[in-house]
Specification:
Layout (H helix, E strand, L loop, with lengths): L1 H5 L3 H8 L7 H6 L1 E3 L2 E3 L1 H7 L3 H11 L3 E2 L4 E2 L2 H7 L3 H8 L4 H6 L2 E8 L2 E6 L2 H4 L9 H8 L8 H39 L13 H35 L3 E4 L2 E4 L5 H19 L1 H5 L19 H18 L8 H12 L1 H23 L11 H12 L5 H5 L5 H34 L2 H16 L5 H11 L6 E3 L2 E2 L5 E6 L11 E2 L18 H24 L3 H15 L1
Parallel strand pairs: 3-12
Antiparallel strand pairs: 1-2, 3-4, 5-6, 6-11, 7-8, 9-10
Length: 566
């Protein structure tokens, strides 16, 4: 087996394992004892880059074979020997992932009422050796491969965990977050502006309600965020898990947009607590308890409202996680985020041209008030670009023909060129992203599943595992009971047309010590034929080289080669 791996030969590997007893065939490819050390031929093939041999090993292990007494399937032995096999494949040999995942599916050759029986052997992708949630989903999500996560096996695992375990926990957390947003908007955007003339509530009841709602935000929402971020920072510091933003190392969870946004929101809420006008007015209420208007808060009202505005935007931005409930909506949101880079490039170009023309127009001798100074010119040029410049103001440009020409050139540069270029870039970027947008949506759902599962109770997880009945043998047909560790489902017969039974069935002896009969593997005859032709060509070329170009010897050599070919 090791010799076949060293030469990366699929043919030699099959010949080597064909000598193994059927009861120990899988161990020959997973565990070889050399003195006191144990070597895995599969891991050796992956680490040394012998991917053809590794592919043949995975195919052999995940092929279901049967005699008259029992079925043989190497899935359990593979995961017992290498619980992290999926991680190793994601990191070192992603080309083998499709072979590996396809080996966990069995489809029936026959159909019943237009439906086909399908067995997904996903026990070890859901449950680890300790009975907990497997890290397989986390490894797949970390690979960030939108095509891998759309594989039927991976999709089944994520959808199963999401719909029956993680959904309820995620929904309860988001329900609380949605309630918090309603309280925050009520206290900052609704109740505090009932009486806009005095910037306070019209009565004592309204002022008390505003104060109560803001106390709820500062205690429940801010307190919850503080506890979460302190724990996350402590965990990353303890594990020495950092990322660099420029030259500054920061906790690794800041690398995710959700962690960074929630941290900024925590800082803003803390700032709002320190600037809270109601607290600054408590010593001087003027007979109105919980008022926001007093001498001490006069200079804080606008900065407080500005911080409150940014905090409101971040609250709603964090609410975008709710798009995970629908794969279609989630895909649309992800496409929007992926084309934002093109929009930022457009805004950068627009700012550059606006600054350029503003400086040039300000240097021009003209008396138009809208373009007299650089700052006024920049504002009005932006208005021109976005169609906000009043039509009557264009008439005043005729008094300065040079200014009119400069504005026309600016319009041609930005409105005609830059905007149409933006449309073309968005179109190309959307087409490139659209092919994988479902995969990116599933990656987002998988990430949420991974983050939600630590909050699932042990009892609920055990009930979920028990409901899957992984200890029951799945049927391959009526009365044909197969192997354990899977989930049986039905799919439309036209979804994946299967004309050949993937189970290798053999007669004869049923002893585990007996070898499997020789298999006719499709493609081996072609490989052997090409090998023979290659060897004959090499011999012919050597004879031609020794002949030194003599015509008679060349003819005899060619006739000899033709005889061999016949």
């Amino acid at each position: 087996v090791m010799k076949a791996i060293n030469v990366n030969s699929t043919k030699q590997l099959r010949k080597a394992v064909a000598c193994a007893p059927r009861g120990k065939r899988a161990l020959w490819m997973l565990n070889i004892q050399v003195g006191t050390q144990s070597i895995s031929p599969l891991m050796w093939a992956i680490e040394t880059g012998s991917l053809d041999a590794a592919n043949a090993i995975i195919q052999d292990l995940l092929t279901i074979r049967a005699d008259r007494d029992r079925y043989y399937y190497g899935m359990d032995i593979l995961f017992e020997r290498h619980p992290d096999i999926l991680k190793r494949l994601c990191v070192d040999a992603p080309a083998l992932l499709k072979t590996f995942l396809d080996g966990l599916i069995w489809r029936c050759r026959t159909t019943e009422n237009g439906q086909r029986r399908v067995n997904y052997y996903v026990q070890h992708l859901l449950i680890d050796m300790d009975g907990n949630f497997s890290k397989a989903t986390e490894w797949i999500v970390d690979s960030k491969d939108p095509k891998l996560i759309c594989h039927p096996v991976v999709s089944l695992v994520i959808d199963l965990v999401w719909s029956r375990v993680a959904f309820r926990n995620f929904l309860s957390g988001k329900t609380w977050f949605l309630f918090t947003i309603i309280i925050f908007v009520s206290s900052q955007s609704i109740l505090s502006h009932i009486n806009d003339d005095s910037h306070e509530a019209s009565g004592g009841e309204e002022r008390f309600l505003v104060f109560f709602l803001r106390c709820f935000i500062y205690i429940c929402s801010l307190g919850q965020w503080l506890v979460k971020h302190v724990a996350a920072c402590a965990k990353d510091i303890r594990n020495k898990d950092f990322v660099r933003i420029g030259r500054c190392p920061v906790p690794a969870y800041w690398a995710e947009w959700h962690g960074a946004c929630s941290f900024i929101l925590t800082i803003l809420l803390t700032t709002m607590l320190g600037m809270e006008p109601i607290l600054h007015c408590l010593p001087d209420t003027h007979g109105k308890l919980f008022t926001e208007v007093c001498d001490a808060s006069e200079s804080l009202l606008f900065p407080y409202s500005l911080v409150s505005t940014v905090a409101t935007l971040l609250y709603f931005l964090l609410l975008s996680d709710l798009s995970v409930f629908s794969t279609r909506v989630s895909a649309y949101v992800l496409v929007c985020t992926r084309v934002l880079s093109e929009l930022f490039l457009f805004l950068f170009g627009l700012c550059f041209f606006a600054l350029t023309f503003a400086c040039a127009i300000s240097a021009l001798q003209q008396n138009n008030r809208d373009f007299k100074h650089i700052d006024n010119s920049i504002v009005n040029l932006f208005k021109v670009t976005f169609g906000m410049y009043a039509g009557s103001n264009y008439d005043t440009l005729y008094d300065a023909p040079a200014l009119l020409i400069a504005v026309f050139v600016y319009v041609a540069t930005t409105v005609i060129f830059l905007l149409n270029l933006l449309i073309a870039q968005l179109n190309c970027s959307y087409q490139a992203t659209y092919l994988d947008m479902l995969g990116y949506a599933r990656l987002n759902r998988g990430k949420i599943v991974v983050n939600t599962m630590p909050g699932v109770s042990v009892q609920r997880w055990e009930r979920f595992v028990a409901s899957l009945h992984f200890d029951d043998r799945l049927e391959f047909g009526e009365g044909d009971v197969g192997v354990t560790g899977g989930i049986q489902m039905w799919e439309p017969a036209s979804a994946h047309i299967t004309t050949v039974d993937s189970i290798r069935r053999f007669g004869g002896s049923t002893s585990p010590a007996a070898q499997w009969p020789e298999e006719d593997v499709h493609g081996d005859d072609d490989v052997d034929r090409f090998d023979r032709m290659e060897k004959m060509m090499e011999k012919a070329l050597k004879k031609l080289g020794r002949a030194g170009g003599t015509g008679s010897k060349v003819n005899s050599t060619l006739s000899s080669g033709a005889g061999h070919l016949s």
